[in-house]
Amino acid sequence: MPLNPLRRKLRSNQGTLGLWVTMECASITEIAVALNIDWVVVDMEHGHLDYKDAMDHIRVVRETGTSIILRVPDIREDCIKRALDMGAHGVILPLPRWAADVERGFRYGRYTPRGTRGLGGERAVKWGLGFKDYLRIANEETLIIPMIETREAAEDIDAILAIDGLEAIFLGPADMSATFGHLGEWEGGDVAQLNLNLRQKAAARGIATGVVATSLEDARRRQDQGFGMIALGSDAGLLIRSLQQALTDLGRDVKPHLWF
User: Fold this and answer.
1) Which stretch of DSSP H or E encloses residue 57?
2) Is 57 annotated in the active site?
3) CA separation for the pair 96, 24 (Å, rounded)
4) Which DSSP state fits 258?
5) Greatest extent of the chain over all pairs of C-alpha atoms, in Å
6) What residue numbers bound the domain in which 54 lies?
7) Number of structural domains the chain divides into
8) In the chain, is it the N or the C terminus that has fewer CB atoms within a 10 Å radius of its CB?
9) How far apart are CA 97 and CA 43, in angstroms?
10) 46, 57, 89, 182: which one is catalytic?
11) Closest CA to 15 of 222, 248, 184
């Protein structure tokens, strides 16, 4: 298998489907891999997941046709370096506000001469057994994906999209809405149209755009809109959706599930 199957699919303009993981049980990711899902994002920015939890998810993905991306807790050198040394195919950068924030993420996630990532004999290089093979292609194959989820990032999008090596961005509708004064809404005000504008700008540069779908109908709509990375939902969200539907069908009165 190639080092990063997702990158191959994005470069061929193939639409991809993924899962957003928020719970520690690696069997969740193992099931998704068995279903041939294209990618999994393990969210370490929110919630309780630590590096040991993330490592368990990475173990069941490595050398399959599924890629695994870690949304790191912060755009810091230690966060990005550890995620990649563990064998992740890439990272999502949380809450970048300017192109400089994204560039910093690239610097931490790339070896010299593009960046400052340190050399380590960890899992990514098969404990040193695949050291040279990994170093030969790591800078090219590793995806550094900024989460565009602030008003500042939206306003600086042209500079962000011009960053050398950028192949994908991911949208964060809830935080974007909050920065425009619509706290607690998924795409409040004009954010829905803003997100489509951001996707169009990225597409013009050959850059894929990702988003989390809030329902199956929304996933179909996102496909029609041209999104290259569509998360079908989070592990918890999908479970809630399924349980709510079953309870409703069996006559229970349940509160509607919002977001994803």
Assistant:
1) helix 51-59
2) no
3) 26
4) P
5) 62
6) 5-249
7) 1
8) N
9) 19
10) 46
11) 222
